[in-house]
């Protein structure tokens, strides 16, 4: 694929991409020549100037340099940046035509062929749209177009509680109580929807907005948002009790959660744990905020789970004498080994913490910003698009560019009768050949270089998941931990220690 080699060629690509109106590109080019003077032909300087003046983003510039023009939009959303990649889906920062920024999780067509992965993606979307609470990341839409299934979520510009604790080590008691209080309010909403989260920890709690440069690193003006509902399990789904098959959609392996914040009963059987396991995890999070460390810090996750089940953590004031005495009994209830001894619901724990909130810290209703109001109005007017299987014809695909070295597939090109005529080139030099709309097809596991081309995309199966083919049994997370633990130890004395630890675990978790 030939790359754009001149400023004029790049301007022609901008026209074809529809990132900017042609009239704006003409004005922009004249401004560039005036300001750049002797450097007006320097492509790299031109790109930096475009990004600095917010005509395009760095991500969009990287695609234009590769001659790509057809992959900047997904329905009414303009793609601004790639935020990363999870195990199964890519995440993109986008802006809606109303001006509202969102994050879009995209499931590539090859993953749709995996009945288990596709079922989990559908289920996550179906459940996530039910959550409408200021302390939970909002999911606005879910749907599919051109073989790409996507979830449109609230875009959050902030810091996770884990990042803040890494910077500050511990938080003041009032800060800690306020943040965990907000998390409990969000968790109560999850509970009311018949869900448990199963991975409550500082990394899944984000504080927005992010800390501005030059301002104090405080959480007093931040709103906490619960992230990653994907591990959650529905206690009931659309009026019916959850089935074992439904539970299997939540993940591979027997252990779900993070050992530092894992309730004892969740370590024994994650699929039977209820909302009180999440209360325990938030108790561990509160302990971390107040003392600068989780309740237990063993390097061996098996021994850590044993301590969660059998030992009490050190008292708060042993590690932080500034903690008020009244916080200890609240934490003791949240961290009770027996779920029956904990607060029965998150709102009961939140009520207990409320006495430690400073005046005016109660969460007040937030008025949506104007662009959010416009976006929510648009969503109300387009209810039919928030469902899997409802495709929108003539939608430009998600970019086929690598996320951490893994190219994302793109949808087929827009059929000719539906494609609007491309505007005439604004500048006269011969335009660079434009890349085909689907250069990588459905390749995800190899990076495709400039001189390579993947096979044509395989047909996308219908949205309804087919029964998964028989697969070789896979080890779950717990089994992988135990296997790695055993293989890593070769000396006879250490093997004996491992054996004793294993017997202890069997006895405790029996």
Descriptive account of the structure:
By secondary structure, the chain is α+β, with helices and mostly antiparallel strands. Among the domains are: about 200 residues, Transferase(Phosphotransferase) domain 1 (Transferase(Phosphotransferase), domain 1, Orthogonal Bundle), CATH 1.10.510.10; about 30 residues, no CATH class. Helices cover about 35% and strands about 10% of the residues. The chain is built from 18 helices and 15 strands. The strands form 5 sheets. Strands 1-2-3-4-6-5 form a 6-stranded antiparallel beta sheet. It has a 3-stranded antiparallel beta sheet with strand order 7-9-10. The chain has a two-stranded antiparallel ribbon with strand order 8-11. A hairpin with a 4-residue loop joins β2 and β3. The chain is elongated and about 70 Å long.
Sequence stretches where pLDDT stays below 50 over 5 or more residues: 234-254, 384-475
- Distance N to C terminus: 61 Å
Q: Supply the CATH architecture of the domain at 159-356.
A: Orthogonal Bundle
Number of strands: 15
Radius of gyration: 26 Å
Count of helical segments? 18
Write out the strand line-up for the largest beta sheet, numbering strands in chain order.
1-2-3-4-6-5
Shape designation: elongated
SS class: alpha+beta
Q: Which bin fits the share of residues in helices?
A: 25-40%
The profile of the biggest β sheet is:
6 strands, antiparallel
* CATH fold name of the domain at 159-356: Transferase(Phosphotransferase), domain 1
- CATH class call of the domain at 159-356: Mainly Alpha
